[in-house]
Every structure is written in C-alpha cells, then in structure tokens.
Amino acid sequence: MRSWIDFWNADHAIYVNDRHKQLHAEAVARDIARHIPTPAAVVLDYGCGEAFYAEAIAHQCSRLILCDAAPKVCAVLAERMSSVRNVDVIEPIGVAQLTDASLDLIVVNSVLQYLSHKDLESLLDLWRVKLKPQGRLVIADVIPPGVSPIRDAAALLMFATRGGFLVPALTGLVRTALSDYGKIRKSLGFSMYAEREFIDLLARHALMATRVQPNFGHNQVRMTFSATRT
C-alpha cells in the first residue's frame, strides 16, 4: 500500500464495532453543528470519509458538499446520500470548480495528518478563495508534535469506556496495530504541527486563526483551529 489514499480507498476496519461508529458520528455531528453560522449556510466537509453524520448536518444548512479523495468512498457516499436533496458529493478536483467566495463554512476534520506540508499549503490557498468574505475555515484533529500512538490509544479507550465498547476497543487496537493502517503509519508517519506554528502557517496564507476548544471527537490532545480571511 503506497499512500494514505490507497488505505482509505480499500476495505478497512477503523471502527471497532457499530457502537463505535455510531458514537463517533454523533460526536462529529455535534462538533460540526457548533460551527454552522445559520441554517442558510453552504458547508464544505473536506476529507469527509464515510460521513455517517452527513444527514444530520444536511438538516442544519442549506447545502452540504461532501468531498473525499478516495474514489470508492465517494461512490458509496454518493449512493447513500442520493435521496438527500441538499447534499452533493465531489472528489477534490471538484473543489476548484466551486464558485469563488461561495462557502460559509469549510470543515477539515482529521485530515491534516495524512497531508504533506506542500499539499496543505496549496489547499489553504484554495480554501481561502472559496470562502465568503465572512466565511470560516475550521480545521480539526490537528496532531501536535510528540503525540505517540499510545496517547491516541489511551484516548480511544477512555471514549470506549464511556461508550460501553471497551472490550471491542481493546481487540480493535491490536488489530489496527497489525493492519495496513499500523504499517503505513510507521512508514509514512503523520504530519504534526505545534499550535503557534500552525497559526503562523495560516497567517502566511492570509488566514487569521485561533485555537478553539473542544477538539472534534474524543481525542482532546489534538487541536481544532478556526480561521477567517484577512
């Protein structure tokens, strides 16, 4: 497996069971909803993955655009969302085709760790162009330097304890460590950013950012940033 896109485009078991999948979707839906400015908002969820929360978010905005780089994910998602009138599913190339200054909110959750620094810088310029003058870019689940897989595992186990799926989570951690996910993380690593470093990076791309809390999802060691055009 050569890239993270290859991994997400293949069959995987990132959720330990249906309970994990459900609770994660509910949490992300709540997290995104906090940032939707009005029911008339146009929202882009970039790197959305399977987006099991999508229908809940679609009810809270006028248009939801779901975007993922894995073609298989997009195809399955488009079929699942076909009956939801205000949801569009696109691949990353489609973002450039969106009207400039047309988006009220861009959400990028748990994506940056899989992007090279160069790719991120290109995307920051693209996202800025697509935001309305008062629009907002929310980048969540940014991993600070020095966070080990052990910290991620501990956060999952705490979430699993609260959610009632601790035993499957323990089994799932072992399975993940031995899976392609564990292997590709060791070979490619994750992109990580310190808080000040990341705010300064966005500033160089004419985006004024602050760190906001809580972070999306269950792992509060990771960071969420909210940015507007300058």
Give an account of the 3D structure:
It is a single chain. By secondary structure, the protein is of the alpha/beta class. The chain has a single domain (4-229), classed as Vaccinia Virus protein VP39 (Rossmann fold, 3-Layer(aba) Sandwich), CATH 3.40.50.150. Helix content is 43%, strand content 20%. It is built from 9 helices and 7 strands. The protein has a 7-stranded mixed sheet, sandwiched between helices. The relative contact order is 0.17.
Question: What's the SSE blueprint?
Answer:
Layout: H1 4-9, H2 18-33, E1 42-46, H3 54-58, E2 63-67, H4 71-80, E3 87-90, E4 103-109, H5 117-130, E5 131-142, H6 149-163, H7 166-178, H8 180-188, H9 195-204, E6 207-212, E7 223-229
Parallel strand pairs: 1-2, 1-4, 2-3, 4-5
Antiparallel strand pairs: 5-7, 6-7
Helix pairs in contact: 6-7
Defining traits:
globular; seven-stranded mixed β-sheet; 230 residues
Following the backbone from N to C, one meets helices and strands in this order, namely HHEHEHEEHEHHHHEE
Low-confidence stretches: none
Number of domains: 1
Q: Fill in the CATH topology.
A: Rossmann fold
Dominant shape: globular
Please, what is the CATH homologous superfamily?
Vaccinia Virus protein VP39
- How many strand elements? 7
Q: Quick gist of this model?
A:
By secondary structure, this protein is an alpha/beta fold. It is about 45% helix and about 20% strand. The mean pLDDT is about 90.
